[in-house]
Amino acid sequence: MVRKGQLEEIFSKALFADEARLYRIFYRDFEKIREVTLPEFLIQSNNFQTIPINRIKKIKKSNTVLFEKNVMVGE
Fold first, then answer.
1. Which residues pair with 34 in a beta bridge?
2. What percent of the chain clears pLDDT 70, i.e. is strictly above it?
3. In-domain check, residue 75
């Protein structure tokens, strides 16, 4: 289960207190994992309307993993 509070904190900090382009979002797109910057993700997802938050698998800033969704059997 995705912890929305944790993701919301990361997005808030990235957008309002940091450089959003440094954040990389990895999200599930059918059978592939796509990687884009946070600003690109917000445009592509139409602010989470077309790509819901629960499809985010990982968020990285530079080489640091800030969030990683647990992989469950059958997913």
1. 27
2. 88
3. no
